[in-house]
Amino acid sequence: MQVEAELARSAPRGDALLTIGVFDGVHLGHQYLIGKLVTEAKQKALLSGVITFKEHPRDIFPPRKPILLLTTLEERQRLIAEQGVDFICTLSFTRELSGLTAREFVALLQNTLRMKGLVVGPDTTVGKGREGTVDVLRELGEEMGFSVTVVSQKKTGGEPVSSTAIRNALAEGDMRRVTRLLGRPFSLHGPVTTGVHRGTGLGFPTANIKVSTRQALPPDGVYATWAYLGGEKHQSMTNIGKRPTFGADSERTVEVFILDYTGDIYGKDLRVELMERLRGEKRFENADALKIQIAEDVKRGREILIQTH
To answer: What is the CA radius of gyration of the chain?
Structure first.
C-alpha cells in the first residue's frame, strides 16, 4: 500500500502528536494551529508532526478545475519547519488514500507514525467521503486510544484566515490584505531564465522568473517588490503579464527589474515579495511612452518600499 509506505518513511523515533492538512500558504491560521500542536506535544512529552499532502485533494477528482497554489511543496515544507515541529511527513493524496475510511486512516497513523493524538481545526475531515468529521474523530479517539484537540479558526482584523480568503484577495490584487492574512508578504521564486531583453533596450533590464504553472498569481500589472538574491535584499519592480505594448505573448511572464543592481543573474534562484500593486498592465503607443511610465513606476515603487523596509 503506497499510503502505508509513505507514512512509514517518516516514522518518528517516539510517540507523536499530529496534525493533518494541505497547509497551502502556511498562513496565520496554519501557524496558529501548528503552534498549538507544538505546545501540546511538549506538555505531553510527545513529538510534534505535521502531515502535509503533496497534492491538493481537488486535483484527483476531475472534471473539477485544479486549484492554483499559494506555495510550492518545497516552500510549504520550509515554512512548516520554521514553526518548530519535530518532523514533517509529505503524503501523496491519491485515489487509494481517498478510498480509506476514517477508521482505516487513523489506524495507519497509529501503526506507522506512533500517533497518540491529533490537533485539528474545526472543519477538518478525513477519510472516504469526508466522513471523518471532528465528532467522528473524537469517537474514534475514545475507542482507539488517541486524543483529539480542536483549535478554533484564527481571525485577524475580525476576518477568518483561510487559504480561500487569501486566494480571493490575491485575485483582486489586494496585496496588503494578502500580507495581513498570510502573516508575511506573498512571494514568488524560481530560476532566472533568458527573456527577449526588451527591458534592456528600454534602459530597465529585467530578469524573468520561471514559476510553476500551478502557482497562483495576482492580476497582471506592475508591483513594488523586494528581491532576494544570494542572501541580499534589493528594491525591485515586478511586471506580471503578457507585455501588450510589444504584442501580447502567449504566456504570462514574471519579469523583475532589480533597482541599483548590475551583474549576471541568469540561472540563479530569485525570490520576490510583492508589497503593493502599482497599476494594471496596459498597452502603450510606443516604447518611449512605456519608458516614461516605467520611470514613474520606479519612483512610486521606491517610496512604497522605503515604508515597508
So the answer is: 22
Q: 301: which residues sit within 8 A by CB, 6+ positions away? A: 222, 224, 225, 235, 237, 259, 278
The pTM for the full model equals: 0.89
178 in any annotated domain: no
Query: What integer pLDDT is reported at residue 196 of this predicted model?
Result: 44
Residue range of the domain that includes 18: 2-156
Cβ-based neighbours of 291, under 8 Å, separated by 6 or more: 202, 203, 204
**Count of domains forming the chain:** 2
pLDDT tens figures, 3-28: 999 999 999 999 999 999 999 999 99
In the chain, alpha helices (H): 2-9, 28-43, 73-81, 95-98, 102-113, 134-144, 163-171, 175-182, 198-202, 287-307
Split at pLDDT 50, 70, 90, the class of 109 is: very high
Q: How many CA atoms lie within 13 A of 48 on its CB side?
A: 21
